[in-house]
Design goal:
Its cofactor is pyridoxal 5'-phosphate. It is an enzyme of class 2 (transferase). Pathway: Amino-acid biosynthesis; L-serine biosynthesis; L-serine from 3-phospho-D-glycerate: step 2/3. Its EC number is 2.6.1.52. This protein is of the alpha/beta class. Helix content is 37%, strand content 14%. It has ten helices and twelve strands.
């Protein structure tokens, strides 16, 4: 299969379809190169870098139409670090989770392992389906995933009706933020990663936080709970207000994310990005539904993600297809490894051209016919 050559005439212009790290726009890299001598290799405590952090925070606030009182907070470590940050700094005593994939399960484990927190309630659903939160007395923190990167399931962001007064909602938008619609008033913490829809490198977590969430962080810190300095949310809030991070950030990550946000805001912001991702989703799901050997893994059309598509194969070896695609310069279509299905996974982020998604499906058909 790896010896098969796909005709150049049907190949996508850009063959990057990874769910994270995702495609980085060449224009962003060119802009970074243009400032490399004055930006890269300079102090993150000085104006040159702090201006880019401020640009990133402004871009996020504009893109998501951030409500009054909300703040953009960022720090090193990525989403995995943020789960620990939230465990130490946002869950007062008892949490409830909607878990329907590998990434939601990791946050659950962090809270379960914390000796200072009560056992959480966990609503689970198998891969390809969704679980939902439900009001429960005594729960002070609810947590759900907007887009499950491992399975391609997406759910709306909505507050939990009937929840105790003061309860927070934390929304994992690691791979959904920037491709899926959201009203930030429906959640207290909307956290995302720069290496997905923001077309940057990894290494940072980004969060848009409500006044209630910020108040909760200061309240827990004041209670005397032990919090490792690297995971201290109050420190992250205070440093973000100074347009910096507690530890040295990856400067290229900051710049590329800010550049991507400026580009998306210039195109029309979140509404434009959601529409573009939806166009790509319509292409790949429409193709799979008409195919004789491919079908969307997520059977409920209302739950199918417009950020990450998962397509099951029958009678065709998806792994062989992925290897042949990679040999032809079309990369990162492999499924999530722990899901263990005969499928491909394709990112539909705003950086990806819908026409390239259409070309990808033509390439898959070309290879499948020759198996």
């Amino acid at each position: 299969m790896t010896d098969l050559r796909i005709p150049d005439s049907i190949k996508p212009v850009d063959g990057r379809f990874g769910s994270g790290p995702s495609k980085v726009r060449p224009e962003g890299v060119e802009s970074l190169a243009a400032v490399s001598r004055t930006f890269l290799g300079t102090s993150h405590r000085q104006k040159t870098v702090k201006d880019q952090v401020a640009r990133l925070r402004r871009g996020l606030a504009e893109f998501f139409a951030m409500p009054d009182g909300y703040e953009v907070v960022l720090a090193n470590g990525g989403t995995s670090a943020f789960w620990e940050v939230a465990t130490f700094g946002l869950v007062r005593e008892r949490a409830q989770f909607a878990e329907f994939g590998e990434f939601g399960a990791k946050f659950v484990k962090a809270v379960k392992d914390a000796p200072f927190l009560a056992e959480p309630t966990v609503h689970q659903a198998p891969g390809g389906q969704a679980a939902f939160l439900a009001a429960e007395a005594g729960v002070d923190t609810y947590a759900s995933v907007q887009n499950e990167t491992s399975t391609g399931v997406a759910v709306p962001v909505r507050r939990v009706a009937g929840a105790d007064q003061g309860a927070l909602l934390l929304t994992d938008a690691t791979s959904g933020g920037g491709s899926l619609d959201v009203d930030l008033r429906e959640t207290d913490v909307y956290y995302l990663a720069p290496q997905k829809a923001l077309g940057s490198d990894g290494g940072l977590w980004l969060a848009l936080m409500s006044p209630a969430a910020i108040e909760r962080a200061f309240e827990i810190k004041a209670s005397g709970r032990y919090i490792p300095q690297f995971l201290d949310l109050v420190t992250a809030i205070e440093q973000s207000r100074l347009e910096q991070t507690y530890n040295t950030p990856a400067l290229s990550t900051v710049f590329l994310a800010a550049e991507q946000l400026d580009w998306m805001n210039a195109q029309g912001g979140l509404a434009w990005a959601v529409k573009r991702s939806a166009e790509s989703a319509a292409v790949i799901y429409g193709w799979a539904e008409k195919s004789s050997y491919a079908t969307p893994f997520v059977t409920d059309p209302q739950l199918r993600s417009a950020a990450v598509a998962t397509i099951d194969f029958e009678g065709v070896d998806a792994a062989a297809i992925a290897r042949a695609l990679r040999a032809n310069g079309i990369v990162d279509t492999e499924p999530y490894r722990k899901l263990g299905r005969n499928q491909l996974r394709v990112a539909l982020y705003p950086t990806v051209e819908p026409s390239d998604v259409a070309a990808l499906t033509a390439c898959i058909d070309y290879l499948a016919e020759r198996l």
